Amino acid sequence: MIDGKRVVYAYNAFYQGREDFGPTSSWEITWGNSLEHFFGPELVRFNPDAFGPDSNAESDAALLELVREHDTELLVMISHVGAGWTRAFISKPTLAALRSQGIKVVSIWGDIQHASERVSVRALNPQVDLNVCTASSGAAARLAGDNPVLYSWVPISDAKVEPCDCGAMVSLAGSLKLNRQRTVQYLQDHGVRVHAGGGEGTGALTREGYLRMLAHPMTLGFANTGFEAVTNARTFEALTQGAVLLEAWGTETAKILRPYDDYVPWHSHEDLLRKVTALTADPDELARISANGQQVVSRFTDDALWNRVLNRIGLGTGAGEFAFVHPVDWTTYQGRGRWAASLRDQALSEPRLDRSVTFTQRAWHKGIWELGKAKRLAKKVLQRP
């Protein structure tokens, strides 16, 4: 509630807007929990998918009546056209009507690294006051030139849970896509126990089961979607559960977390295996990185998130603003020293957490990666808005 006026949260109650697909995803639930935590239990919820997939007439009329009844000042929505729909989530004329009444409209976006999602952001731009974008600060920056954009973290609404008693040091929570399956198989082939499972829309894990899967001493993350780096919800969820995040190297997460201090990046299967082995053998280092990760992510509160949003749309007080992508003081950065020291330790064949590949190997891997990226970019450049 803002100064006695209500906030309405619009989202689909079912996965992909289809009742036969089951309840909505954790994405909508997470944002709803965050809104309720900040604005209070008076948060009003609205589900466009309750009115069917074919027409906006009944759904939009219900929304207009709802905001009038509750004297609404802010509409926050996750605009998602459901599977098989022939209608909009909320029609553009209705959004325009809401704004003409002085109601601020905020739209939340999660996959802006995809060209199709950025097309949707731009198409809806005239009808919203702010687009809250996650996943990629780079993609958000590209959008921000012509659109009201705020880059944000994914809300953190889950308490820490007890891990399962499987005995595995490493976990992977989520579907086993081909690259993930290869990674898990490589670790298992080299004697590392990995507890893997779950996946959005599969019904295989409850929310608590998903968090228990994350809550191992170490959990795997994959920071690249297609050819663009991202920071996804798993990054924040893993840290809140006390796991050390082992994330495939990507430029986005390194803007938020300090490599080797708050999380551990890896560059190849061989590199990952060395780091898992080193951390398993060094519980003090494992505990240090885990504690750092939990401390950093504790900054990303609901109060900080929604104060940033309210300040941007003119409903805030200006308090609580802080830099999400924080600068690193490289002169005192702990990881930097260990990184350099690893070159000496490598010659002595000591198992270390730091860079454990040679300059030649790094240059070779980097060259192959850049070549592949260039080829993928050449294929997709005409498709990108």
Provide structural commentary.
The chain is elongated, with a radius of gyration of 22 Å. The protein has 385 residues and is α/β, with parallel strands linked by helices. Helix 6 (178-189) links the parallel strand 7 and strand 8. Helices cover 41% and strands 13% of the residues. Strands 2-1-3-4-5-6 form a 6-stranded parallel sheet, with helices on both faces. The chain has a 5-stranded parallel sheet with strand order 8-7-9-12-13, with helices on both faces. It is built from 13 helices and 13 strands. It has helices at 26-39, 57-69, 92-100, 115-124, 137-144, 178-189, 207-214, 233-240, 269-281, 283-297, 302-312, 334-347, 359-380; strands at 6-10, 44-46, 72-77, 104-109, 130-133, 149-151, 170-173, 194-197, 218-221, 224-225, 228-229, 244-248, 264-266. It has 2 domains: 6-151, Rossmann fold; 170-297 and 329-376, Rossmann fold (3-Layer(aba) Sandwich), CATH 3.40.50.
Name given to the CATH architecture of the largest domain: 3-Layer(aba) Sandwich
Assembly type of the chains comes to single chain
Reported for the largest beta sheet, the result is: 6 strands, parallel
What portion of residues is helical? 40-55%
Which residues sit in consecutive blocks of at least 5 with pLDDT less than 50?
335-365
Q: How do the SSEs run, as a string of H and E?
A: EHEHEHEHEHEEHEHEEEHEEHHHHH
For the CA atoms, what is the radius of gyration? 22 Å
Main structural class: alpha/beta
Q: What fraction of the residues are assigned to beta strands by DSSP?
A: 5-15%
The number of domains is: 2
| Total count of helical runs of at least 4 residues | 13
Average the pLDDT over all residues and give the rounded result. Answer: 83
Distance between the termini: 37 Å
| Number of extended strands | 13
**CATH class division of the largest domain:** Alpha Beta
CATH superfamily of the largest domain: Glycogen Phosphorylase B
CATH topology of the largest domain: Rossmann fold
Shape: elongated
Order of strands, main sheet, comes to 2-1-3-4-5-6
